[in-house]
Amino acid sequence: MMHGDRRWIGIAALLLVGGCPSKPGEKGNGGSAGPAPSAATIKVGEYGSLTGATATFGVSTRDGVELARKELNAAGGVLGKQLEVIVYDDQGKQQEAATAVTKLITQDKVMAVLGEVASSLSLAAGPIAQRHGVPMISPSSTNPKVTEVGDMIFRVCFLDPFQGEVMAKFAWNTLKAKKVAIFKDQANAYSVGLAEFFEKTFTKLGGKVVAQQAYSAGDNDFKSQLTNIRGASPEAIFVPGYYTEVGLIARQAKAVGLKVPLLGGDGWDSSKLTEIGGDAIDGSYFSNHYSVENQEPHVQKFIAAYDAAYKAKPDGLAALGYDAMMILADAIKRAGSDDSRKVRDALAATKGFRGVTGLITIDENRNAKKSAVVLKIQATGFKYQETIAAD
User: Fold this and answer.
1) Which residue among 24, 42, 118, 180 has the highest number of C-beta atoms inside a 10 angstrom radius?
2) Alpha carbon distance 30, 136 (integer Å)
3) What distance in Å separates the CA atoms of residue 364 and residue 201, rounded to the nearest whole number?
4) CATH code at 247?
5) In-domain check, residue 376
6) Is 19 helix (H, G, I), strand (E, B) or coil?
């Protein structure tokens, strides 16, 4: 049974009067379980973790998509139609993600789907979109396997091989670390993949991985693994996990006497990270998709609009949600149609799209080629360190 976020479906229905930005082409079969079908709207689906352990991921992404929807509709919509976004909560669970996308396509008849953040959830739902011939755009699933599902699956974020390379280069070139440890979530495709790519680049540069330890999402006690890591005397620890565990890991690392910086990926990007980690996470670094310190006018305009709407600074997930919605709208315009197949072809032809998270070009494998930033965690927030471009 689908545990959808009915509250947001209701909001989507109400917003039809004023219009809601949604995604490309109308495609699907079956009846609508959301707002009444209308030829005047383009229906887009979105699924994400609005509740559960990684809820900030889904909420930030949804808010970014919603901001884009409002801006697009206020400007007249796309192809003369208002955009409508139907949102379901997958609770961060693979089965719920698959159920959500099935319902969006077969019952709500969306022409495209936005989601997910977590790679494991995109991998659970992607085959359904592929089978039904409906394009799916992941705002921020970075595992390479996500788009390997098929030619209907796209992403607007960089990939883990690049993200792992970025942090390995940062550790070696900027931090001058020669010895590192890796502490990964052994059951998480994102974490395992990122650890692999980091190790490959770091050792190629001449560094040495002196210890490897593993944990599982939901664990609360990491002291045994961290004590083993301490015994190897690393100069930094790569922890490619999600903010939920990383904050606790930082606290316990400090407790066992580890005084080296932690390094991570975009799974750290949440205001909850510093709430959980406290001052123990200060001085650590992670790769991300953009920085609120970027002074480009279109980036600052987005930040101001998001802050006005949600009374918060947008994180990288919000920025990627916004970019995913905008790229979809751009593809619909270029296709001159909201037909799913035509929009898919237009998405595949995206070149140099000027997004909040950088210039985005979709390559032959439907992945985004773009740069990454490294942020330092301080008591005052996430501070920009440097930008590392794709080769």
Assistant:
1) 24
2) 19
3) 24
4) 3.40.50.2300
5) no
6) coil
What's the rounded Cα separation, in Å, for the pair 388 and 135?
A: 30
Three-class SS state of 362: strand
Sign of CA dihedral 374, 321, 157, 217: positive
Do 170 and 148 fall within a single domain? no
Q: Which residues of 137-148 are buried (b: 16+ CB within 10 A; e: fewer)?
A: bbbbbbbbebbe
| Same-domain pairing of 332 and 344 | yes
In a domain, 1, yes or no: no
Domain membership flag for residue 389: no
Question: How far apart, in whole angstroms, are the C-alpha atoms of residue 112 and residue 56?
Answer: 23
For residue 229, give both structure tokens.
Answer: 């890591």
Tens digit of pLDDT for each residue in 98-156? Answer: 999 999 999 999 999 999 999 999 999 999 999 999 999 999 999 999 999 999 999 99
Same-domain check for residues 180 and 77: no
Residues 314 and 212 in one domain: no
Is 383 inside a domain boundary? no
In which domain, by residue range, is 97 found?
A: 6-158+296-370
How does strand 262-264 pair with strand 236-238?
A: parallel
Look at residues 349, 292, 342 and name the one whose alpha carbon lies nearest to residue 316. Answer: 292
CA-based torsion, 238, 241, 243, 244: positive or negative: negative
CA distances from 97 to 122, 159, 178, 310 (A): 8, 21, 41, 26
Please tell me the total count of domains within the chain. Answer: 2
**Tell me, what's the pLDDT at 36?**
38
Helix (H, G, I), strand (E, B) or coil at 357: coil
Q: Tell me: do 217 and 308 sit in the same domain.
A: no
Q: Are 239 and 194 in contact (CB under 8 A)?
A: no
Same domain for 10 and 147: yes
At 355, give phi and psi (nearest 5°).
Answer: -95, 170
